[in-house]
Amino acid sequence: MYTPKPEHKFSFGLWTIGNTGRDPFGEPVRNALTPAEIVYTIGEVGAWGVNFHDNDLIPIDATAAQAAQIKSAFRKALDDTGVIVPMATTNLFTDPAFRDGAFTSNDPQVRAYALHKTLRAIDLGAEFGAKTYVFWGGREGTETDAGKNPLDAGKWFREALNFVCEYVIDQGYGMRIALEPKPNEPRGDIYLPTVGSMLAFIETLDHSEMVGVNPEVAHEHMAGLNFVHAVAQALDAGKLFHIDLNDQSFGRYDQDFRFGAHNIKSAFFLVKLLEDNGYDNPRHFDAHAYRTSDREDVKAFARGCMRTYLILKERVAQFNADAEIQALLAEITADDGAMDAYKGAYSAEKAAALKAHTFDRIALGQRGQPYERLDQLTIELLLGVR
């Protein structure tokens, strides 16, 4: 019942399964794997897809011969396992050239180099069939606003994305672009830090129809925000092109825990939102095994991400079929039709009638809602006693 299948569209990045456990305070604790070895691991745990940054696959200083050899081994691993490449992205944050940003760097040579690197990376993604291209602006920001004009930065970022969209169209790649917000880390403040700010920015682009968002659980939780609400806004706008699933303590650094490892109720309502609304794009686990894990435990981490999602999906079906829960929801959302005349589009007549209507404000203020009972039933369902 909890075995991942291709229709679930579960994916991992080369950088997730291949993570060596290195952090700012400690050296690697696991041996590095080749891209092909990571694909075989992903196939072993039953995932559908593998995603990569350009330099996850091809080291930035690789020769043409080395790149060809890596790509050949990677393609063989894909063919052997049946794993596909649904998404690709560009590393615009590791190299020292991007110390002050990529598309928003004050240096026009850096901005041009970032675009050069991105176009080549898009070609690499297209070569392996990627249909979604993600941009995470990890260095697009500031530590001091004295050093950069945010209006200029926004203009440069817009120009770069417009250029990229035109390139994708010109090449006939059929890709959609997904922008990934994050409030901070590694910059003190990252531009366009939340899903809402990204959605507003997208509407200023020349090809807004081909640009959406790739929200991440941890990133919204870092800012203390409700991720389910952010995803709902993206769904409502038709812009949820991709999603990064992991977990996170509120207000901490970017922890990238296993999906469902920390905020299980939030994870449940996220899965409910996605499943109830027919989300059919990739479910990407942008998470990392604990530094304490060995390679076998990394496999357990990957299986755990997918298993938790499928368990929560089962709980969603149970929630939707639970008679007592559904009765409470019906009570909460009851509508006797008395306000039907005021619903829908504006008209002068409707506005006049609404203004003339007499409401019993005192009675409205005395109405309670059984949210405590509903939440307790939800908790009992998640704890397996219903």
Gist?
With 386 residues, the chain is α/β, with parallel strands linked by helices.
Could you walk me through the main structural features you see in this protein, from its secondary elements to its overall organization?
The protein is an alpha/beta fold and 386 residues long. It folds into two domains: 6-321, TIM Barrel (Alpha-Beta Barrel); 323-382. Helices cover 47% and strands 9% of the residues. The protein contains 15 helices and ten strands. The protein has an eight-stranded parallel β-sheet. Strand 3, helix 5 (108-127) and strand 4 form a beta-alpha-beta unit. The longest helix is centred in the last third of the chain and has 27 residues, at 295-321. The chain is globular, with a radius of gyration of 23 Å. The two termini are 19 Å apart. The mean pLDDT is 98.
CATH homologous superfamily annotation of the largest domain? Divalent-metal-dependent TIM barrel enzymes
> Strand content of the residues, in percent?
5-15%
Q: Provide the CATH topology of the largest domain.
A: TIM Barrel
Give the total of beta strands.
10
Average pLDDT, all residues: 98
Instruction: Write the H/E string, N to C.
Output: EHHEHHEHEEHEEHEHHEHEHHHHH
